[in-house]
Amino acid sequence: MRDKKKWQSGKVKSGKVPHLKEKESKILKELSTRPEGLRVDSLEKFTDIPKRTIYRILKKLEKQKLVKNIFPIWKISNGQSDFCHSLLKDNNIFELHNMSYVVKLIKKPDWWSKRKNYLIRLKEWQFKEVNFGKNGSNPYQQIINENFVIQCYAESIIIIARKRYYSNNPYDTAVQALSDIYDLLDWFSERFRFKFWLDEIPHVEVRNNDFNRMNDAVANRVKKEKGKFLVEIDERRKVWVDLSEPFGKEANYPEGQERMEKITKDYLTKDVLLPSEIQQLVGKNAQHLNYHAENMRSHVEAIKELSLGVKKMSKEITRLNKIISKK
């Protein structure tokens, strides 16, 4: 028989932690992968559970302090993420989140310059127009749903994933994320009935990501495969992963990224001093400055002694003049 004791702050007052029922697990899992929370409409779409049942389960989980409601959003309560994963019997030790991508538009439809009129009509997406850049020099149109933020520029699309991906294998985590992005891009082409991608292969560049125990695993995989490795999403979609981004650094805002790209270009195309060389020069300059400082001190002492000598000589001349005048 299931223990009906309540959870409080991730613990049970007494007895054994009960197992979640199937529908409870589905709802908790969807909320766990989206820390910003979901509406009930979205939970219904992702779980195929009727709204009435979802509300009943959410109220139950809320009483157990596992979820909270910031109307109209439901989300995991603060400090309960780890406990929810344990309830879901989730042994995944790798997490990938804050994924964002830049998709170059090799081809564009004739109406792309008037894309606002098309994007604003998308159902289940929130539309927003943003005047980005100095004096609105680089505006974009943004659409948002539960899983993605899509920013549409004149020559490219930036996609920000709102989901988190979990696995006990970093390779699988990458496959999950890339599979979602390619599904989204397929939907984008089908929805607007236009083949944006050359040979139907999107030019996707990872713009930003946050890894928990992922970086080392990816680097080791790259070394093992001698420079890069293949992620096979399915028979049609394959992605090569390498460490080509110089220094492994990326910025999460355009100005920072542009500045780092300029710095990298300078290092690669110009005879720029390396930090170790700059440090060596600074050390040498410090030695020269110390040497000149010692010389300056010596000169100052000499000038002081000369000044004292002049004063004594002046007094002696004054004394002699007095003697001569008396005679």
Overall pLDDT confidence? 77
What's the story with the biggest beta sheet? 7 strands, antiparallel
The shape, in one word, is: elongated
- Taking the alpha carbons of the first and last residues, their distance comes to 133 Å
Helix content: 40-55%
Q: How many structural units, i.e. domains?
A: 3
Rg to the nearest angstrom?
34 Å
Percent of residues in beta strands: 15-25%
The number of distinct helices, counting runs of at least 4 residues, comes to: 9
Question: SS-based structural class?
Answer: alpha+beta
Give me the strand/helix succession. EEHHHEEHEHEEEEEHEHEEHH
DSSP, total strands: 13
| pLDDT < 50 runs, ≥5 residues | 1-17, 245-253
What would your notes on this structure say?
It is a single chain. By secondary structure, this protein is of the alpha+beta class. The chain has three domains: 19-87, Arc Repressor Mutant, subunit A (Orthogonal Bundle); 94-269, no CATH class; 273-327. 44% of the residues lie in helices and 20% in strands. The chain has nine helices and 13 strands. The protein has helices at residues 22-32, 40-47, 51-63, 81-87, 116-119, 170-192, 215-224, 254-269, 275-326, and strands at residues 7-8, 11-12, 67-70, 73-76, 94-104, 126-130, 140-144, 148-152, 156-161, 165-167, 203-212, 228-232, 238-242. The strands form four sheets. Strands 5, 6, 7, 8, 9, 10 and 11 form a seven-stranded antiparallel beta sheet that branches. A hairpin with a 2-residue loop joins strand 3 (67-70) and strand 4 (73-76). It is elongated and about 130 Å long. The relative contact order is 0.08. Residues 1-17 and 245-253 have low confidence and may be disordered.
